[in-house]
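Ticket #4471: structure output looks truncated?

Reporter: J.K.
Steps to reproduce: submitted the chain below (201 residues) through the standard prediction queue, then opened the result file.
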Amino acid sequence: MRQVYVSGSYLPESEARISVFDRGFLFADGVYEVTLVLDGKLVDFASHMARLRRSLRELDMPFSLTEADLLKIHRELIGRNNVSEGLVYLQITRGAADRDFIFPTRDTPNTVVLFTQEKALVENPVAIRGQHVITVEDLRWRRCDIKTVQLLYPSMAKMQAKSRGADDAWLVRDGYVTEGSSNNAHIVTSDGTIVTRDLSS
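Returned output as attached by the reporter:
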């Protein structure tokens, strides 16, 4: 059975528990990162940690684990689950507290969850044949620059794409593609130029 990590403990996924009062569950008050694994090694881990720190900062969410702590946990899960190709999912919430729109005190322990998922990346059929996408209006909240767990609208967009026989949806705001429902949007022109969203916007 797959081993997962929940707030300091490694345990079988069937034994993993999170409080019903967790703010990630009640308010989507949490952030996440997904780091790819190829040949048992993490891909671009430092960049994921930089984005994670930015998201935590933008939400004013205290967090005591270091990048070294998180790297150790990632590697431990890859080893315990013998993952050679796939991903490690990391989610951090503001923790469990009585339901209130005001943030709990800053000493409230975070809920920290990590798990692995085996997935074909190199020989993925979609990567080989190319992806078919539709465009939909970007109706997410305006702070989608923060990588929160608030992913209901992207999920709805993905289902709309599926219902129309496409693989994914690109979200459009003010005439510009912002990103895909579950991917980054890149266009490679015939001369090899890569077109993607400006990092500053």
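Triage note (M.O.): checked the attachment and the full token line is present. The chain has two domains: 3-118, 126-196.
Status: closed, working as intended.
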